[in-house]
Amino acid sequence: MTIAIVILCICLLVFLITYQKVNAFIAFLIISLTTGYLLGLPLGDLAKSVQKGIGDTLGSLVTIIVLGAMLGKLVASSGAAQQISGSLIQAFGQKNMAWGLMLTGFIIGIPLFYNVGFVLMIPLIFSLVHQFKLHPLMTGIPMMASLSVAHGFLPPHPSPAALVAQFNANMGTTLFYGIIVSIPAIICAGPIFSKTLTNMPIRSLKAFQGDEIPASQLPSRTSSFITALFPVFLLVLTTLADIKMDKNSAWTPWIHLIADPSMVMLIAICVATYTLGLRMGKKMEEIMHIYTDAVKDVAMILLIIAGAGSLKEVLLVSGVSKEIAGYLQTLPFPPLVLGWLMAAIIRVCVGSATIAGLTAAGMIYPIVSTGLVNPNLMVLSIGAGSLMFSHVNDTGFWLFKEYFNLSVKETIRSWSLMESIVSIVGLLGVLVVDQFI
């Protein structure tokens, strides 16, 4: 009966978000209260559980996500992203343009949120299309695949970062495994898959070309690359140092402090404020204004994550999580496949990769807590599932459709299939890595 109640409430959550267009944060709060009441949670504890879930979830994430948004905004507005993309295209040449754009999207996608990266890279894609007479999908799909993979697989993006915190995974290890899993997913969904789309008609894209920052005003290549990827470098270095260093060393506590994801992002912001801000002639007031705008961009994401945390807490406090875990363990699926499947189903129903990942995390958490599965790989498995078959209920679907001037059918043939390939190959990559660790 309890499992039926949870399934009913999840379906109601999907109904509210998808069909009634209720704000996801409000929908999560309503469903959290409804679920707790139907599961018999004492009314006096119900509101406290919701508040605790919100507080616990945001407490470990708000710094990472907000600082990550600030870094991404500065990378974009300073021209560092433009410098990185231009350098990579120049290095790869016209013949290997798709591979250059794929790598560009992946590097840019690590510090930038998906929507920011998408809008930022569109002018570059279309300028290349017109300059070299390329097919827009051959040019755009590799970069969009990279941006999507970074968004779904890699911290400090909202969903992966939230899953790392919920599962008590290691962010550096998750990032390392995530990069390994990302490579085949991006190659298959990007340069290889895009070759099957050359028969699609090319329509005018001039209306979407944007203005670029003059080359004389761009930061240097070295500064752009190092600043954009600084969180990655620092996470990898501290993870390796923690493995190699003697646990009794006097430096170990310092390594643990610096390796904390919040500290990594804080250090990265301090570096970026100088390299892409003050050093480029920007005033501190102007830089802080950029950071303020960045917080506005992720405010709703934070609320959605908080709402998902409230539902998770209700499931934990009510005790239904243990019952669900017992039931899930009887299904003929490995835990990693089960996590992927849950996220994929919710993604197809709801449309949001973030909501799909966070909702699936709450359902699969009891299995992760038993220690039967590697938490770092579960983050990636759910992340892969959360990208499955984007369609008409996903804002990314419509962004791609409108910018590339496609019909709904053509968008499903290109964008939706690309996302499905990313998801399936991502799961296969996780299962392969699982065999070696």
UniProtKB/TrEMBL annotation:
This protein's GO CC annotations: plasma membrane
The organism's taxonomic lineage, starting at the top: Bacteria, Pseudomonadati, Bacteroidota, Cytophagia, Cytophagales
Family the UniProt entry places it in: Belongs to the GntP permease family.
Lineage top rank: taxon: Bacteria
Signal peptide extent: none
UniProt entry keywords in alphabetical sequence: Cell membrane, Membrane, Transmembrane, Transmembrane helix, Transport
Keyword Iron-sulfur set for record: no
GO molecular function annotations of the record: gluconate transmembrane transporter activity
Record localization: Cell membrane
Predominant cellular place of this UniProt entry's protein: membrane
Keyword DNA-binding set for record: no
TM region(s), chain numbering: 26-46, 58-77, 97-122, 134-154, 174-193, 225-243, 255-277, 298-320, 340-365, 412-433
UniProt protein name: Gluconate transporter
Recorded topology in the membrane: Multi-pass membrane protein
